[in-house]
Design a protein that fits this description.
Oligomer: single chain
Largest sheet: 4 strands, antiparallel
Helix content: 25-40%
Structural class: alpha+beta
Number of strands: 8
Distance between the termini: 31 Å
Strand order of the largest sheet: 1-2-3-4
Shape: elongated
Length: about 180
């Protein structure tokens, strides 16, 4: 029998939180303070002041738009990769783990979540939409010499693919609801 590779992609847009708006406000405040300092010394540094203002404006734009996040979950034959996409222009791999190396894969409503979330040896990585959706899952395992607890919102196809390669880690049957 011929086995085909399974490739699943899912894109999740992150909603801005109060923390994001706080950082945006701080970025704008720092920019305004920089403008004030430049205008105080403008008679001495006119050319450099214009360059500094232009650079600071570009930096402000970049910092604010980098708060527009999307997460892409990629599952290939039981291997889960999570990338962060910044303002639809830059991508960075955040975590990559085979289901064979996961300790557990379960919804956050599972009692095991509390045990892992309270364990300080696990670094929590949140790759969810930030909408309070009840479909948040977690997995744990070792990634880059750290024990991690990863929060994400996978489609049932991703759960099923991980279950196909390591059924003992999945603590919930997504087909049941």
């Amino acid at each position: 029998m011929f086995n085909q590779d399974v490739f699943i992609e899912q894109l999740v847009k992150r909603q801005k939180s109060g923390k994001d708006y706080l950082f945006i406000g701080l970025y704008i405040l720092a920019f305004l303070l920089l403008l004030l300092v430049i205008f105080i010394f403008i008679q001495y540094l006119i050319f450099f002041a214009l360059l500094i203002v232009a650079g600071a404006a570009w930096g402000l734009y970049t910092l604010i738009t980098n708060r527009n996040l999307e997460f892409e979950y990629i599952c290939t034959n039981g291997h889960v990769d999570i990338d962060t996409i910044y303002n639809k222009r830059k991508r960075k791999r955040k975590v990559s783990m085979s289901s064979k190396n996961m300790e557990i894969l379960a919804p956050v409503s599972d009692p095991a979540f509390r045990k892992y979330s309270e364990d300080k040896s696990y670094k929590t990585l949140d790759y969810t939409s930030n909408t309070g959706d009840a479909n948040v899952w977690f997995f744990t395992g070792k990634y880059k010499d750290n024990m991690v607890l990863v929060l994400f919102e996978p489609e049932s196809r991703i759960i099923e693919d991980c279950k196909r390669f390591n059924p003992r880690i999945v603590k919930f049957n997504p087909i049941q609801g």
